[in-house]
Amino acid sequence: MYEVHVQKVHEFIMFLSYSRMKYVDFIPDMKLETLMKCHMNTFAYFNGLPEQILYDNMKTVVISQKRVILISLKQKGK
């Protein structure tokens, strides 16, 4: 007989709005540390940083249901 192990996984998806280039990762949890690793992997895959990131209703980054979080990564002077 085979032993079956079921584990819940989450999907991290980021895509660029203009080119629609996508990065997908399957992760075991939604901890902040895991989220940061996903971002680092994504930026390495995209070979750079987007100017802004718009998040959906993700518990790790949502402050309240009434606000949408928009993070600007634009460097000063550019």
Automatic annotation (TrEMBL):
Superkingdom to which the source organism belongs: Bacteria
Protein name as annotated: Integrase catalytic domain-containing protein
Organism: Peribacillus muralis
